[in-house]
Amino acid sequence: MKIVAFERAMQGTGASRRLRITGRTPGIVYGGTGQPQLIELDHNALWHALKKEAFHSSILEMEVAGQDTKVLLRDVQMHPFKQLVLHIDFQRVDANTRMSKKVPMHYSGEENSPAVKVDFCTVNHVVNELQITCLPADLPEFISVDLSGLKKGMSIHLNDITLPKGVKAVVHGKPNPVLVSVAAPVDEAPDPAAAAPAAAAAAPAKGGKAAPAGKAAPAAKAPAAKAPAAKK
Fold this sequence. Notes:
Elements (H helix, E strand, L loop, with lengths): L1 E6 L5 H9 L2 E7 L6 E6 H8 L2 H5 L2 E5 L2 E12 L6 E8 L6 E10 L5 H4 L4 E4 L3 E6 L8 E4 L8 E3 L10 E2 L8 E6 L8 H11 L30
Parallel strand pairs: 1-4, 2-6, 7-10
Antiparallel strand pairs: 1-3, 2-3, 4-5, 5-6, 7-9, 8-13, 9-12, 11-13
């Protein structure tokens, strides 16, 4: 993917503000054997490029003053509530130096798996981006994982997938993290056979109140007999 940038002479908060008013975004290119270089980019072109996944996870070819340089997107500063890119950072890429980068995970086939089709399970994508290290030439745009073989009760760990050639995962102390888990469906409807006795025990007698659980309902008292009236 190729982008075009322009050399930037002015720097500072005021200069950057004036630059944004003209529809340009300030940025910088650093790393490698060269000195940091101040650049500016067309904001509209940059805004649309940022919506593409490849712009974030692949080696970019940047043209500045007629020279092409291979770079990698490192940081983007966005306005808190406006659709505005405030600043952008790129790093020069050395073909012989291993680099670290987060790449997206692309999961597919879960709708055809026994876990979903037969057991109506829910498939949870625990990890959506994976930190990797590799040479620039081996950097993948994304990592594909086929979920069509998922079954109820299964989970997919990092060791269960095959990474592209030359790529190593950075696990940060977790040697074999979970990438995908399968959750069994929750039965919301109660069992009718179990619910019937409980309903019968809880039902109040006609004209009375339901007895608390574990106690028998008190017996109804017979009405007191009236004494016969005395004869005169």
